[in-house]
Every structure is written in C-alpha cells, then in structure tokens.
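Appendix B: complex inputs.
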Amino acid sequence: MLCDDVKRIAYFFLDGTLGEQKKNDFSAHLNLCPECEARTKLHRRLRIFVRNRLARLTAPDRFKQRLMRTLRAVAAEWS
Amino acid sequence: MKTAEVYEHEQGWNFEKAAMPYVDSLYNTAYRMTRNSEDAEDLVQETYLKAYKYYDKFEEGTNFKAWLFKIMKNTFINNYRKKKLTPHKIDFSEIEESYERVIQKNAPDLIRDPESEIFQDMMDEDVKRALDSLPHDYKMVVLLADIEGFSYKEIAEILDCPVGTVMSRLYRGRKMLERTLLEYARKYGYIRGVAEPAKMRSRKDETKGRKKKEEPEGESEAAEPEENEEEVLFAGGEDDFELEDEEEQQEEFAIE
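Resulting structure:
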C-alpha cells in the first residue's frame, strides 16, 4: 500500500469499516511510514476534538418540558 | 381486552419513554442544521409530533434513533428547502490540493507531533463556524457520523442516498472541516506555522477550481451533487472500493 492509498482510506480505517486485509495493509504501512502515522493520528485527534466540541449542546429544559406537555396534550386529544 | 382509550394512553406513554432520550441529540443536530435555537426547537417539536403520529408505522427492532433523524431530515427539507442553498459540486482534487497546502503551511509541527494540545484553546464559536462553512449535504454526513455515531448504512437510510455517496461526502466533508480548522488554528494563533501568514480562502476562492465543471448558475433550487461524480472516488475500477454491488460493498466494509 502506498502513501496515496493510505491518505485516501485513513478515515475509513478510523471508522473501523475496512475489510480485514485492507486494515492489515494499512497498519503495516503506518509501521513503516512516520508521516502517514502522524497524519492518521491528526485525523483521529481532530475527529475527537470536533465531537467533544459539537456534541456539548443540549436542549433547553424549558423546551423539553414544553415538548412533553405538547405530546401529552396531543395524546389526550387523540384518545 | 384494552379499550381504545387505554391503548392510546399507553401508546403515548410508550412513545414518550422511547423518544425523549433522543431529544438532546435531535436538538443538537437541529441546531447545527438551522443555526438558531428557535428554529431548532420548532424543528424538533415538529419531528416529535410527526413521529408520534406515525409511531405505529415504526418497525419494531429497527433503529428508532435513525427513524427519528430521518423524520427530522424530511421535515427540514420540507420546511427549509425553498429558502435554501446554493448549488454546489465539490471537486475532489481541489480539496486534496488545498488540504495539502494548508497542512504543509499551517501544521508542519502538528505533523511532527500530532499529540500536541494546541486545539484545546480553540473557541467553540470557531469550531461551529468551521462546521457551518461546509455545504449542507457535507455538514449533515459529518454530523450524523462523527457526532451522532451513525453507521454509513444508517446515514444512507436517513438521507435517502446510496452508501457510496455517504462515504464520498464523509471523505470530502471531513477533509474540508479539517482544512478549515487548521486554517483557523493558524490564523488565530493556536498553532504556529511557517513564515508566510495563512490567507483565509474566500468563498470565491473556494469555488474557483470547480467553476468550469459547474451547472449554469441561476437555478434557485439546490442541485443535488451528481451521484456519478461523487462515486468516482470510491468506485469504478478501484479494487479497494467496489461500491457498485450492494453485497460486495457490505463485505468489503464490514458495516455493522
């Protein structure tokens, strides 16, 4: 596997969705190529970073309460 | 035998119990889609009301969270499609080239030391802005995969598109997001780059490389990216990404 191939499938490696053979080839390449290893680490770090930052938002409590009231009102109306 | 009233009551209760745990996830994604809290609340509420209405259509044993997200995506399209969105087509080689430029210029240290903590100081607002800079379809796959943790197959189901399209949008969306984050990191001094200051690419720059391939402008409705073009990256003669055959594709990627 060449560096270009590794760049192209790095995200899918991190997703854990490569087939067994591809996954092994990928790992073997990283063991030999520090730059591809560093890039793959950077992808992984950025992904975790983005998830941590963008998953923080929660629905406001007053909205949740309003939503539940609405759902119960609709359920009552339909029964 | 249960009366209709008891049945309805139970159904309402069951629905609430099943659906409320996802309210934060739905709200988070709705907020990223609509970009403001008022519209996000409306979108989530409408999603819940529709989901309740069609709750008996939900197939037991399938993914309830994905079902809710699909309803939300359809609701969003119905409500906002008219307002939306410039046509776009993202040229793969343009993304690759600009990513390489950005990474060489802005992050040479980062490549040497990818464990360094530089991103921790970045403002939430900058991360949000980086996400918002993605075209809508690309933003959606990144949100669904990397924030909500859906599989390719679930995303394909939610967005009504082939798995290959999900993968190619994910690839491009993630690359564009990383590129923008690296640019911001450099611009706002979170990382040091090489001598020349990083120039923020304007929207005009963003579209420059792909102008000639684009459809004539002036269409008010957003054009879906051509599937063929999107598939190019992961299909068609490439031995590692054979996505044309559904079964083969599942085997290759061992989709959960």
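The first helix of chain A runs from residue 3 to 15.
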